[in-house]
Amino acid sequence: MHKVSMTVNGRPVSGEVEGRTLLVDFLRVNLRLTGTHVGCDTSQCGACTVHMDDQPVKACSVLALDAEGADIATIEGMANADGSLSTIQQAFQDYHGLQCGFCTPGMVMAAAALLRETPRPTEAEVREYLDGNICRCTGYHNIVKAIMAASGQEVVPVAAE
Length: 161
Hints:
Elements: E1 2-8, E2 11-17, H1 23-30, E3 49-52, E4 55-58, E5 71-73, H2 87-94, H3 104-117, H4 123-129, H5 141-150
Parallel strand pairs: 1-5
Antiparallel strand pairs: 1-2, 3-4, 3-5
Helix pairs in contact: 2-5
Organism: Palleronia sediminis
Keywords: 2Fe-2S, Iron, Iron-sulfur, Metal-binding, Oxidoreductase
Domain 2Fe-2S ferredoxin-type: 2-78
């Protein structure tokens, strides 16, 4: 067993892990932060996307020990300080950017990283950035609209279509 310490959603945390423990398992099992989903175990789907030192990573492909000293942000840390939904989360709700919701945490985390890098992306940039995140339900159309709306760009509301 190895001791690991990091900051998760602004809070210092530590725990004992085996050398093979994945970051996603440390978050879900040790810290009980179950918003980060395990979808494929092969880093294909992006459901486990978190931010490590402000960079999006697939937590199923990072060892917990490799996150030693890192600053980790999960979907649980995305809400505003008062508990209300962040701009991105609200846009996903407003523009129906989810159906079953399984991919949503990873999509929101990817969207946050994109908007940090490119505050006003084009639709093509959004679609390209989401290439590593799979949604089996929505067809991505409303996810893209939600991200565009979260960037402050005018989007035709879903109800108006």
